[in-house]
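tool=predict chain=A
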Amino acid sequence: MVNKFLVTLILLTIAWPGASHASLTSLVSLEMSLAGYQLGMSFDDVAKIRPFRYEQSSIESTDNTSTFYALIDQVYVDGAALSLQVSFKDEKVHKIVARMAPDFFENVKRNIEQALGVAEDKSRVFGNYNNEEIHQEIYLWDFPNAIIHLIKVSSNHEFLTISLTSK
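tool=predict ok
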């Protein structure tokens, strides 16, 4: 049994810097990470994994700290393009967001559930300004030190979102 305080997700893991493909079934390890980026990593550690560009948030948080974002555009997993945003607070990774084609949704959800158990379903349906019905599939895995979200919106044909956030 995986210790719930050390439950980790390595989703879409790139085995080494510069690797161009990895398996969607590489899901569980003992560190909380996403696509090779671990919560709590330093800026320098993130830079060692693969090149990125960065931005500073123009909005200060409530505790007056700035947020920096490492943006990684060219990661490929099983032939699918993956874009990443790694967010830093106090010079440590606190959130990792991955976007990929929505066609991978069911496969990714199934693989995460096999590794970490059934998610809490937070899905909802709402109407947009044209009165069209929009389905927002939201699945949540909640751990003592992190939260994982898997989100797909029926009106968004470009990407699904997977996020890993420190608590």
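Residues 8-166 form one domain. Helices lie at 43-49, 105-116.
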